[in-house]
Automatic annotation (TrEMBL):
EC number(s) reported in the record: 2.7.3.9
Organism: Vineibacter terrae
Catalytic activity: L-histidyl-[protein] + phosphoenolpyruvate = N(pros)-phospho-L-histidyl-[protein] + pyruvate
Name listed for the protein in its UniProt record: phosphoenolpyruvate--protein phosphotransferase
Subcellular location: Cytoplasm
GO biological process entries: phosphoenolpyruvate-dependent sugar phosphotransferase system
Keyword entries, A-Z: Cytoplasm, Kinase, Magnesium, Metal-binding, Phosphotransferase system, Pyruvate, Sugar transport, Transferase, Transport
Entry similarity comment: Belongs to the PEP-utilizing enzyme family.
Keyword Magnesium: yes
Gene Ontology terms, MF aspect: kinase activity; metal ion binding; phosphoenolpyruvate-protein phosphotransferase activity
Pfam families (UniProt xref): GAF, PEP-utilisers_N, PEP-utilizers, PEP-utilizers_C
Length: 735
């Protein structure tokens, strides 16, 4: 560095030296330029013509990834990395392994230093450290202003202040923009021991009283309405009355701790005891307990809220490690635009409350708290399970456009609400929604759906803390039927096992849970449990018509056994003199391929068939629906899959048995179009998809399309998707 020469010459020298010393065929330096672009400034090994020509956006390719996350990367097989971005001008296709480090000055990323090797090799820690040392030297050179005018890159402080995109999991859909409001971290305790336990006990008593009163107020808040989010809060409120918890704190105070320290101890002890437990139920309780402890600490400190509402921007996105349901409700709902969590699952209590508030939520975003500063612009893209931190102007604009387009589309779909769901050439189609939570039922009104084609009864089981007894189940199902107001609801009996774990039952040790002990298999092996559910369904219906279906049936005998249990419950209710359903329809989910070859017998016994394409496709293709590597490997629009579906639909039609589709296929316009072409007339989907499907079918000439589809079905191509797409485009079918 001390040598004479221009900064560029010194860079060229560095890449030569590093490549030589580290036995790498390539060493390259990228420098950050305005507009968050990384420009190749020097290279040993790559095509020299690419210098000052190759530019990567921050976040693009592996180099961009290193800058975006401000962290080193070491890859034995770089080309198979999902971020690999091939730049033909560099000639780098022959290099297999790669290691790179960010050029950091303070917390700022100024560039990237990377080495590559032709053969696949592992770089060790020492080598990464060497690169980091060189990068420190480089940082000084870049900062000297000799390479890039320092004014070119805006002066910003703090790590990773470059825009970044982070992946997470969708906890609630939707897209929004707002300013980051990091959720207040836990209150720190300064006083640990107390002289006067009596006085401390009184302080604790008063604070607990105040916390309970706060929670009661929240529950009384009229606009929360009814549904699971309310029950979640009620469970949470009950926690505050938990005798064991209160006693533990009292004891610790009697031992000489302050009320604050005692509350913290009670929490720390519990957390330590359950540290290794991954059981979702326990994790959820811990997060409730953490919320409650923080509330108590706040009250003890004489405040009632940690946040300072005067600092809240008008449009805010709350960012937290995890959040309790009550904590979320502390935020001003008129300003709340979204929520980003480091933890959380779709059925976590906070996600349920967020759904009720209709804000997008992305969870399991790694280290989000370290990566945002208060006031940072944040895009919460719940639909695609991603978050943009400090997005570039173009991205913000694009998202704003997406939001307004969605709004326009929502309005257009709302206009369709009262128009008939019929194709252009006059075929009526029944559009229904899939539901699981009470709140989903609101969508019957907003979408104008005909009914609930799939009510997943396991969902209310999954959000509760204990197994609901017959009475509780009866009340859940009765409320669903009330909300459906006469529209049909197909109740599917418990489909647990597989990926759906009941918190209080725990996971089974099935090696292959999707094909293991799940759904009707559990129901038939534990008939008392299934009977209780059927009893509750019969009681909830009263005189109203009742529709029940069984999941994962693989043979006629299973259907027979399950419907026999239902008949027993009906008989029992009648014998007790109870009012029983005016009409009972008993059906099944067609999800296991073996049933396709039992249709003849089956169709004489069932009232209806609902095709669960999510499971059916995973079993037809032997491709795990939850595994992204194989999940999209096979297309449900392949002639093979469609021939199987056609056979089912034709058989049902011939037997005069109603057939519907309730898997995700029914909600994707192009797939819904294909299903209509195969003869399906009832589609059940998540409420958000209904507008698009209705818009599609209202623009469709079904007779013409059905004939076209028939002509394709005998083909042997991988997928008919492109052909169907082209057809739709040519014929003005709105997809
Ligand atoms: C299906 O398998 O298609 C289905 C609708 O059921 P679930 O997604 O609940 O397994
Ligand atoms: Mg299924």
């Amino acid at each position: 560095m001390a040598r004479a020469g221009s900064a560029q010459e010194r860079l060229d020298q560095i890449v030569r030296l590093v490549a030589g010393e580290m036995v790498a065929e390539v060493c390259s330096i990228y420098v950050l330029r305005a507009g968050e672009v990384l420009e190749l400034y020097a290279t040993q090994g790559l095509n020299p013509d690419a210098v000052h020509r190759t530019r990567l956006r921050v976040g693009e390719g592996i180099v961009g990834d290193i800058a975006a996350h401000a962290r080193p990367v070491s890859l034995a097989d770089a080309q198979s990395h999902p971020s690999f971005a091939y730049r033909p001008e560099t000639g780098e296709e022959i290099y297999h392994s790669m290691a790179g480090v960010p050029v950091l000055r303070g917390d700022r990323v100024l560039g990237v230093l990377a080495i590559q090797n032709r053969r696949s090799r592992q770089y060790d820690e020492e080598e990464i450290e060497t690169l980091q040392n060189v990068a420190m030297v480089l940082a000084e050179l870049v900062a000297s202003g000799e390479l890039v005018n320092p004014n070119e890159i805006k002066q910003v402080d703090g790590i990773g202040l470059l825009p970044i995109r982070l992946d997470g999991v969708q906890l609630n859909g939707g897209v929004s923009i707002g300013r980051a409001v990091p959720h207040e971290p836990r209150i720190m305790i300064s006083r640990v021991v107390a002289e006067d336990p009596k006085a401390e006990l009184k302080r604790f008593g008063d604070a607990l009283h105040a916390v309970r009163a706060d929670l009661d107020r929240m529950l009384e808040d009229g606009d929360l309405g009814h549904g699971e989010h309310r029950e979640v809060l009620e469970t949470f409120r009950m926690f505050a009355d938990d005798r064991g918890w209160v006693e533990r704190i009292r004891e610790a105070i009697s031992d000489g701790l302050t009320a604050e320290a005692a509350a913290q101890r009670a929490f720390d002890d519990t957390r330590a005891r359950f540290a290794d437990v991954t059981d979702p139920y326990i994790r959820e309780r811990l997060s409730d307990l953490s919320d409650l402890t923080n509330r108590l600490l706040l009250r003890l400190s004489g405040r009632n809220t940690a946040a300072d509402p005067t600092q809240w921007p008008d449009e805010m996105v709350v960012v937290a490690r995890d959040l309790g349901p009550a904590e979320l409700l502390e935020y001003d709902r008129t300003k709340l635009r979204g929520l980003v969590l480091e933890e959380g699952s779709a059925l976590s209590h906070v996600a349920i409350v967020a759904r009720a508030l209709d804000i997008p939520v992305v969870g399991r975003v790694e280290n989000i708290l370290q990566r945002v500063e208060p006031g940072d612009a944040l895009v919460v893209d719940g639909d695609n399970a991603q978050v943009f931190v400090r997005p570039a102007e173009e991205i913000q604009q694009q998202i704003a456009e997406t939001i307004s387009l969605r709004e326009a589309q929502r309005q257009e779909y709302a206009r369709l609400r009262d128009l008939p769901a019929a194709t252009r050439d006059g075929t009526a189609v029944s559009l229904r929604i899939n539901a699981g939570l009470m709140i989903d039922l609101n969508h019957l009104e907003s979408t104008g759906a005909d009914g609930v084609g799939l009510y997943r009864t396991e969902i209310p089981f999954m959000v509760r803390s204990t197994f609901p007894d017959v009475e509780e189940q009866t009340s859940i199902y009765a409320r669903i039927l009330d909300a459906a107001a006469g529209r049909p609801v197909a109740f599917r009996t418990l489909d647990v096992g597989g990926d759906k774990v009941l918190p209080y039952v725990g996971a089974f040790d099935d090696e292959n849970p999707a094909m293991g002990w799940r759904a009707i298999r559990i129901g038939l092996d534990r008939p008392a449990m299934l009977r209780r559910q059927l009893r509750a369904l019969v009681a909830a219906a009263g005189a109203r018509p009742l529709q029940v279906m069984f999941p994962m049936v693989a043979e006629v005998a299973e259907f027979r056994a399950a419907s026999h249990l239902l008949a027993l419950e009906l008989h029992r209710a009648k014998a007790r003199g109870a009012i029983t359903p005016a009409r009972l329809s008993v059906g099944l989910m067609l999800e296991v391929p073996s049933l396709i070859w039992q249709l003849e017998a089956l169709l004489t016994e069932v009232d209806f068939v609902s095709i669960g394409t999510n499971d059916l496709m995973q079993f037809l293709f032997a491709a795990d629906r939850g595994n992204p590597r194989v999940g999209s490997r096979y297309d449900s629009l392949s002639p093979a899959a469609l021939r199987a579906l056609r056979f089912v639909v034709d058989s049902c039609d011939k037997a005069g048995v109603e057939v519907s589709v309730c898997g995700e296929m029914a909600g994707r316009p192009i797939e819904a179009l294909t299903l209509l072409g195969l003869g399906v007339r009832t589609l059940s989907m998540s409420p958000g998809s209904l507008g698009a499907v209705k818009s599609m079918l209202r623009s469709l000439d079904l007779v013409h399309f059905a004939a076209y589809l028939r002509s394709l079905l005998d083909g042997s191509e991988r997928s008919l998707r492109d052909k169907i797409m082209l057809y739709a485009r040519d014929r003005g079918v709105r997809l």
